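stuck on this chain:
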Amino acid sequence: MSIQFDQTTQTFHLTAKNTSYIFQIVRDGYLAHLYWGKKVNAYHHSNELRFTDRSFSANPEAEDRTFSLDTLPQEYPSFGHSDYRNPAFQVQLENGSTVTDLRYVSHTIFKGKQGLEGLPATYVEHENEAETIEITLKDDLINLIVILSYTVFENFDAITRSVRFVNEGESNLKLLKVSSANVDFRQSDFDLISLPGAWGRERYVARTELRPGMQSVESRRGASSHQQNPFMALVSKNTNEEYGEVFAFSFVYSGNFLSSVEVDQFGYSRATMGINPFDFSWLLEPGSEFQAPEVVMVYSANGLGAMSHTYHRLYRTRLCRGEFRDKLRPILINNWEATYFNFNEEKIREIALLGKNLGMELFVLDDGWFGKRDNDTTSLGDWFIDKKKLPNGLEPLANEIRDTGMEFGLWFEPEMISVDSELYREHPDWCIHVPNRRRSESRQQLILDFSRKDVCDEMISRVSAILESAPITYVKWDMNRHMSEVGSAALPPERQRETAHRYMLGLYRVMDEITSRFPHILFESCSGGGGRFDPGILYYMPQTWTSDNTDAISRLKIQYGTSLVYPTSSMGAHVSAVPNHQVDRITSLDVRGHVAMSGNFGYELDVTEMSAEEKNIVSEQVEFYKQIRPIVQFGEFYRLFNPFESNHAAWMFVSDDQLDAVLTYVKVLAEPSDAFIKVCLKGLNPDVKYHIEAIGKSFYGDELMNVGLNIPLMNGDFKSIMWHLKAE
């Protein structure tokens, strides 16, 4: 790990674990990108920049027709001085113009990594884990300072990037676009991988060939969203799990984002990621600053599997925080699909006690415990106990459940407000809205204006009061609608387009204060399931409810796509009732358990209605998961069969010492005259002999990985196995 600057050639060489990233100061202070890829020990400009006269590419210097910003691969391109491609940023001056001209001024290299004020970001626990360079650029005409920050990690093939704008001039500036990272590749023979979806169908894998022009992945919904995820990867044509180059970008942000790739006329490609400029601007007054969120860039020379391993370890250990970062996560029972809003103390006790008897460790009381919340049309914002359902309040119930040996958890939706609520009647201007326009509702609710400090302070107070009132050790933090009529009653006209980003800054402050006040509570984020499964939220809450769709077969694709970026320890996965409440599919307890045990495991059904046989199966599942939990939650994850490409899915987890592994295989639909299936395992020690108790046989790791392991014949639809491999 090092950052080197060659004074003679004006070249920066950044080195992460097995990665090099190189750029150069050219001409009168332009930053030109030279290389990002497999580590090189020393760089001597074998791919030096070449220039020639290109028709219709304007020239900053009239006497040199070979030099144009339109053909220069750049680090942070601006708009208006001969580059016609997509700029990384755009600034409007008071005279209405949007031309800028950034030039290199200086740079600083230091050990470690600094945090970003008010924003989530990766971190280091010791300064020797990383090295950072900050490069100062300046537009002399308007005295705009732009500071580019790069951090390289010693133990990861990851480089983080962010940018800070400082107005040192005497006039107002308005930021119209702010990207956090830009990479200009001198090639475009890539495929673009992204993670699109919808509610109940989050993070499916899409792969498409780059074409001339623009391709983008974005959200304009006020959240990272179910529909897209703030991630993209450019991969070489032959790339699969084990082979090929991967250049990946992940945005540590939970709001509107834009990831784009532009293939230009010469076959170069420009990858850019940052806050979505749609309906965004930021007034930058003299002396003020704007800090952009962080992009985590990962390079892999060994396919998508190695890319995922980097993201998993980095996000699990240097993005997630708090005492639960490294702790085993509890097996829970949630009452939502068992009761919905219709419950009382007796029913809750019954579910909790039976869950405890079956070996579960945490009971979660979901929606409906507050205000007059008998359905989803009322009471959001009224965070006080519904005494009709819980006449004795939360504390006696929580204590009673904890006395059995279980922990007690609670559902919240702190960012929302119901029109039918005491809070709305008292403060109708506290929601996101635009004067004289209708207030469109979604799920009969509006969004609290977290761009306002008074609203944030009140929610911190109300949520904290509940968390202090009872022995609560788990919180499910939900958010069930996206933004419309985006505006704030507290902002002046010239700042209205700051509302969505200020909302995110307010949300991050609220989450930071609450999670800091209650470090003993395990927080799980949720947004109608996986609608805000992003790195920004993981910084505050180490796990996320992966999807409201708990159907095991649907979850094969959802969890597969999620695993491209996010570690297993961040994925909530539950066994629910059948017919499934989202897709009406009937699957066995075995397959439901095997899929759910490949995440943070739990149940979301009425265990009191189970047969004795079903209870025995659940008890066995819980006991089995306790044996394999450390491997699943903190081991290395390997994708074996892709459910997007076949009728099968398979994956495995391997412990860090390679002495334990867990293999899961699922067959989706039965086929006549079906082929025999074998699977080649991954990540094992080739010289270790592993015993598979389920089949009573032992094999060396090299045989399991190279020859493969037979999957037993299984008749019927939706069949699965989950086997524990132990070193002898």
Observations:
- The longest strand covers residues 173-185.
- The mean pLDDT is 97.
- The longest helix spans residues 612-634.
- The two ends are 38 Å apart (CA to CA).
